[in-house]
Design brief:
Largest sheet: 4 strands, antiparallel
Strand order of the largest sheet: 1-4-3-2
Number of domains: 2
Distance between the termini: 36 Å
Strand content: 5-15%
């Protein structure tokens, strides 16, 4: 009742009430993913975990810890990173600029590698790193930087502003001379008389490519024996497939009192 009066969001109120609850119902995606569990404030220590309909737990874990990125996402990500650096290069600290340059270099190398692949291939993460020539790059520090600075959220806002500016430029009418304006008015009157102007559909929202890039970087920080990189041609993309799915289960059973 108090929430209705204050027009509060029940989602955030529920999350704050989790520590006081004796029974919490969660989807698999929240329970089995470490980052999501921490974001929700779910503490498994000394608690009992009950998995209902557990026949698809292994496939769920595998999909949660897998990642994919396409050449289209890399092209958008690379363009976004370069425009961000160009816009804020005078405001960025040296350390931040260094990580941004590493992010740009990694995206560019991945794009060149995928565009140069003529066949489908399965490789280990070490082989993938050698192909990209990124053995000297510390992906753990880069992934930590992206996570701690909320870079995906910042880039998402920058991406939306960039999209709006592009739409605004497309809608801008070119400058016309006096005769051209007169002819344009006549054409406009004729068009209105013949038929009504069709309404344009609203622009379809496109997700920020930085989220896909971050997920793939996080996947590359896993142990080499845990998964493989699968390069596909149609469409051209790289997929990280996690084969070792028991480590998450062991982490859950170590923390929980019973599973």
């Amino acid at each position: 009742m108090q929430g209705k009066i204050q027009q509060g969001c029940p989602y955030f109120a529920t999350r704050k009430a989790v520590p006081q609850c004796q029974l919490v119902l969660l989807p698999y995606q929240v329970l089995l993913h470490d980052g999501t569990r921490q974001a929700w404030g779910i503490d498994l220590k000394d608690n009992v975990v009950i998995l209902d309909e557990a026949h698809n737990v292994l496939s769920t874990i595998s999909s949660l810890y897998s990642a994919e990125i396409s050449t289209k996402s890399l092209i958008l990500a690379l363009r976004l990173i370069r425009e961000y650096i160009e816009t804020y290069k005078l405001r960025l600290k040296a350390k931040n600029l260094l990580y941004m340059k590493q992010l740009e270099s990694l995206s560019n190398k991945m794009l060149l590698f995928l565009n140069g692949q003529s066949k489908e291939e399965v490789m280990t993460m070490a082989q993938f790193a050698r192909h990209l020539n990124i053995l000297e790059m510390n992906l753990f520090k880069l992934a930590t930087y992206v996570e701690k600075t909320d870079l995906c959220k910042k880039f998402h806002g920058f991406y939306l502003r960039m999209q709006r500016n592009e739409v605004k430029k497309e809608n801008e009418k070119p400058k016309l001379t006096g005769i051209q304006k007169l002819m344009a008015k006549k054409e406009e009157v004729n068009e209105k008389e013949e038929e009504k102007e069709e309404e344009r559909p609203p622009p379809r929202p496109v997700p920020s490519p930085l989220f896909s890039l971050k997920s793939f970087i996080d996947a590359l920080t896993n142990k080499c024996e845990d998964g493989r990189i699968v390069v596909e041609r149609s469409p051209t993309e790289a997929n990280y497939c996690n084969f070792y799915t028991n480590f998450t289960q062991l982490r859950i059973s170590d923390n929980a009192r019973a599973v």
